[in-house]
């Protein structure tokens, strides 16, 4: 079981459920170190002053907020500490909403909330009530001196907490400068063809079907080089041709999707 990174309680109304916060995800990114090309020794990064080029001791470094034009406001650690939100050790539920009303762009990081040993019954009650209602909880809590806005939802008998981005952290679509569907309305035939393509590619959600193919290739490359294998230079890929005829592209895509679906049906029938 992962180590708890926070402990407290979920508070809704006059009910408090003691819980522990556990990480729900584990990054599998392949990470590299910077090493010297000649002897493969690790490269050390130094803190250097941009004005005189001299190395700066960590004790001489302070926090500065950039005002632009080379001007900074220096903020002391005790000044920031005075602004830290009060760590109440409580996730205060403020309201329940339909999950469908929350655009996924707001979700940040996910965690599991598991019950404390003495709170299994009220925890199970909260999970079951949320499952029956089909709603998620919105609330706030403090983790590592930062206050987060978060959602709680029932998932396979446990609570999942997701930290949320605030509304002013989301880039408005209007700022993208792209044409809207009202300005580039598709024809009825194009829309019908695209709808058929979507339907032909529709399937139940199965996350096990997807994996990081790039990571697999990188690890295979590392393993091969560690064994001393000499690898051939990769072939250059031809650039993708631009779409000239939208209807022709839709028809070809739909035919390919139907062909793949037919092959899958045939394979299942022969099994």
Could you walk me through the main structural features you see in this protein, from its secondary elements to its overall organization?
This protein is an alpha+beta fold and 271 residues long. Among the domains are: 6-25 and 84-169, Ku70, Chain: A, Domain 2 (Beta Barrel); 185-200 and 247-266, no CATH class. It is built from five helices and nine strands. The chain has helices spanning 77-81, 120-133, 188-200, 213-226, 246-270, and strands at 6-12, 15-23, 63-68, 71-75, 90-98, 107-115, 135-143, 146-155, 158-164. The strands form two sheets. A seven-stranded mixed barrel has the order 1-2-6-9-8-7-5. β8 (146-155) and β9 (158-164) form a beta hairpin. α3 runs parallel beside α5 (246-270). The longest helix has 25 residues, at 246-270. The two termini are 40 Å apart. The mean pLDDT is 85.
């Amino acid at each position: 079981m992962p180590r708890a990174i926070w402990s407290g309680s979920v508070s809704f109304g006059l009910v408090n459920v003691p819980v522990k916060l556990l990480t729900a995800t584990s990054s599998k990114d392949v990470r590299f170190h910077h090493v010297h090309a000649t002897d493969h020794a690790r490269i050390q990064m130094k803190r250097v002053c941009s004005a005189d080029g001299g190395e700066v001791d960590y004790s001489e470094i302070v926090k500065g907020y950039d005002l632009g034009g080379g001007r900074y406001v220096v903020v002391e650690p005790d000044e920031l500490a005075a602004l830290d939100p009060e760590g109440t050790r409580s996730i205060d539920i403020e309201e329940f909403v339909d999950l469908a009303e929350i655009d996924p762009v707001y979700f940040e990081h996910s965690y599991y909330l598991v019950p404390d040993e003495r709170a299994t019954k009220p925890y199970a009650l909260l999970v079951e009530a949320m499952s029956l209602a089909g709603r998620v909880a919105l609330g706030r809590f403090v983790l590592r001196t930062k206050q987060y806005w978060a959602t709680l939802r029932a998932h396979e008998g446990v609570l999942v907490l997701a930290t949320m981005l605030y509304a002013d952290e989301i880039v408005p679509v209007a700022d993208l400068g792209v044409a809207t569907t009202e300005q580039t309305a598709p024809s009825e035939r194009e829309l019908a063809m695209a709808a058929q393509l979507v339907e032909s590619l529709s399937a139940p959600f199965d996350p096990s079907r997807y994996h990081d193919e790039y990571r697999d290739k990188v690890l295979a490359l590392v393993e091969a080089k560690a064994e001393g294998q000499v690898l051939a230079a990769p072939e250059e890929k031809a650039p993708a041709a631009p779409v000239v005829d939208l209807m022709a592209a839709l028809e070809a895509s739909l035919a390919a999707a139907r062909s793949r679906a037919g092959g899958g049906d045939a394979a299942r029938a022969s099994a």
